Amino acid sequence: MEEQLKIDFEKLLEKSNFSKKNIEIKRKNFNNFIEKGFPNKREENWKFSDLNQIISKNIKNLSFYNDLSKPNKIDQSTFIAGLEHNKLIFVNGRIEKIEFDYEEKNNIEILDDLVLKKPNNANNSLLFLNNAFVSKFFKLIVKKNYSFKKPLVIYNITNKDLVSKSINLKFDILLEENSSLKLIEFSNDKSTTNFININYNFDVQKNSILKNYKIDNNSNSNIKYYFNNISQDTNSVSEIFLLSSGSEFIKNEINCNLNGKYASAFVNGVFLLNGSKHHEIKTNINHLVENTKSYQLIKGVLEDESKAVYQGKIFVDSKAQKTDGYQLSKAILLNDNTEFNAKPELEIYADDVKCSHGSASGSLNEDSIFYLMSRGLNYKEAKKLLINGFLLDVVEKITDSEIKNLIKNIMSLKQ
Amino acid sequence: MLKIKNLKADIDSKSILNNFNLEIKPGEVHAIMGPNGSGKSTLSNILSGKKGYKVSGEVLFENKNLFELETEERAHKGIFLAFQYPLEIPGVNTNIFLKTSLNAIRKANGEKELDAIEFLKLVKLKAKNLKFDEEKLNRQLNVGFSGGEKKKNEILQMSILNPKLSILDETDSGLDIDALKTVADGVNSLRKKDNSFLIITHYQRLLDYIKPDYVHVLMNGKIIKSGGPELALELENKGYENFN
Predict the structure, then answer these.
(1) In a 10 Å sphere around its CB, with 0-12 CB exposed, 13-18 middle and 19+ buried, how is residue B38 labelled?
(2) CA distances for A383 relative to A202, A371, A387, B86, angstroms
(3) H-helix or E-strand spanning residue B104
(4) How close is the nearest chain B Cα to the Cα of A167, in Å?
(5) Domain limits, chain B
(6) How far apart are CA A398 and CA A239, in angstroms?
(7) Contact A310, A277 (CB under 8 A)
(8) Which of A39, A88, A111, A203 could form a disulfide with A46 if both were Cys (CB 3.0 to 4.6 A apart)?
(9) ipTM of the complex
């Protein structure tokens, strides 16, 4: 693989118009990645999901150079119906459309010619890989006092033209003071066995609200890694919802720094897995100042031989008195061969805090099934109703009612 | 309607019911009384199709072999069990559950499914008759309901589904006297020439309000004596221990 990496990296530099500065940074990052390689289970963070092994098992001849010179067709049928929204459309890793039809243009700004930054986590080789291979690095600025009128959907579409290639995308999103954004990331994959590596950096300034919904629902054989870094200033709110379902492998990593007083972070997620799918959610919520709050609720329904992992960490700095931190994960295992790993971690250095965590997993309650069947529902209907009920309370946490209904529809949840 | 011949039931190779015989005709109300551990709940579980028992003998419901029917098919044919301990099912809205249940049964019987408006009209009426707080129907099934409300909810389901054979498994336990009366009224209002009841209870108290046609005494897995309503009083006076 190293040989391929080197060839593809030189090809990328040759074919692209990167600035001198960026080429320099890219070379450094490339070397860092070569040194470390894909993460494996010897690293604590990756002990439940050995990415190195997963890639070599699932992807034959992974290559890293992606020819982005020719435009791709956009399959309009992949668009979310019944929801007015702005669009950023990526097909096979290439930006195909930027459409902010509903917004005041002077209140938003998009930059794509930026100097790359050093990854803020020197242990994460995938951030180096991303820096080395990302082609355009986008930055969206939501100006002070501006609230997006309609959601922004970032479409990550792949099609059959793309096989066993790596896609690296990078976004910086800045919400200036008193602004708000509803961002939906919507994946639709028709490609096979790609490695998709996406980095988000959110800067949520004073009094701003970020709502981020990540929807991965179409069954596909891709391997994905998302790294989301969120910095929150005073009185800001971030709300994340993950529907983790479609891809063969996903690891969603969320690092959230609550830097300002009264900042709050909500991370809710659902694993809906079957076949041999293996998904992970890893969170680091860092309470760094007084009076911040975090809430995490993750639920999974696992079938066949699928596997889900939730590693949730709450860190409370010694300065962060009056922290309120909560996390709970629950899974229904529909089959003996499924696996749910939960690793809650609390690291607390302040004494006046309220933190709790919990985790539970088990099979569907047979008595409940019997109760429902005694009322005329067949096994399948009873099971569906119980699962529906199990998942509903996570989805109910979504504060935007339009998007909540959209996600309920996508998940075929009732009521 | 229901014919049980020589029913034997074991669980984990422990004999619970043995040589159990019972016949219930359309329109009849039968009460089965017995002490703890006599096999009362096993009987209701077996009739409604709960798995985990090793059974032999014959149980016919309207001349169909009950053992060949799945739990939901028994419900479709008109068997209803009011649970001794109704389950709390988080996340499942009571109204939606009731509608799903009613329509599953109607569909299986080739009847038209009720739409939301027709259903709400029906459920409102039934809830009112049972003095059941309508607002509770928008909550999660039995979650946060008091013991009495759970039992009333069973009777509400029964009155909506209008089964041919209703089995009431210790429905009176945990009810205060007012709730007991309301529940009894609900049952009595369903008494028709085609609807039968099997009432399982420890005490004759419930039978003051629901007059049975027959009373059976169940001990050690079989009926040791059958008679009219007076048998319940006799039992109450003597106690189970001295009854034999």
Answers:
(1) buried
(2) 39, 11, 6, 18
(3) helix B94-108
(4) 39
(5) 2-238
(6) 8
(7) no
(8) A39
(9) 0.95
Helix (H, G, I), strand (E, B) or coil at A125: helix
Set of chain B residues whose Cβ sits within 8 Å of the Cβ of A377: 72, 100-101, 104
DSSP state of B115: -
One-letter identity of residue A224: K
3-state secondary structure (DSSP) of residue B211: coil
Q: Which helix (H) or strand (E) holds A394?
A: helix A379-395
Following CA atoms B96, B98, B100, B101 in sequence, which dihedral angle do they give, to the nearest 10 degrees?
160
Whether the Cβ atoms of residue B86 and residue B157 lie closer than 8 Å to each other? no
Per-position pLDDT tens, chain B of length 244: 999 999 999 998 899 999 999 999 999 999 999 888 889 989 999 999 999 999 999 999 999 999 999 999 999 999 999 999 999 999 899 999 999 999 999 999 999 999 999 999 999 999 998 888 889 999 999 999 988 899 999 999 999 999 999 999 999 888 888 889 988 998 999 899 999 999 999 888 889 999 999 999 999 999 999 999 999 888 888 888 777 6
**DSSP code for A293:** E
Cα gap A256→A242, rounded to integer Å: 15
- Cβ neighbours, 10 Å, residue B203: 14
* Chain B interface with A: residues with Cβ < 8 Å: 48-51, 70-72, 74-76, 80-81, 83, 86-87, 89-93, 96-97, 100-102, 104-105, 108, 140, 157, 161
- Which overall architecture, per CATH, does domain B2-238 show? 3-Layer(aba) Sandwich (3.40)
Hey, where are the domains in chain A?
2-365, 366-415
Closest by CA to B142, choosing from B127, B131, B153, is B153
Residue B141 phi, psi (nearest 5): -55, 110
B92 → chain A, closest CA residue: A389
Q: Are the beta carbons of B89 and A386 separated by less than 8 Å?
A: yes
- Using a CB-CB cut-off of 8 Å, the residues of chain B touching A383 are none
Dihedral of the alpha carbons of B104, B108, B111, B116, in degrees to the nearest 10: 10
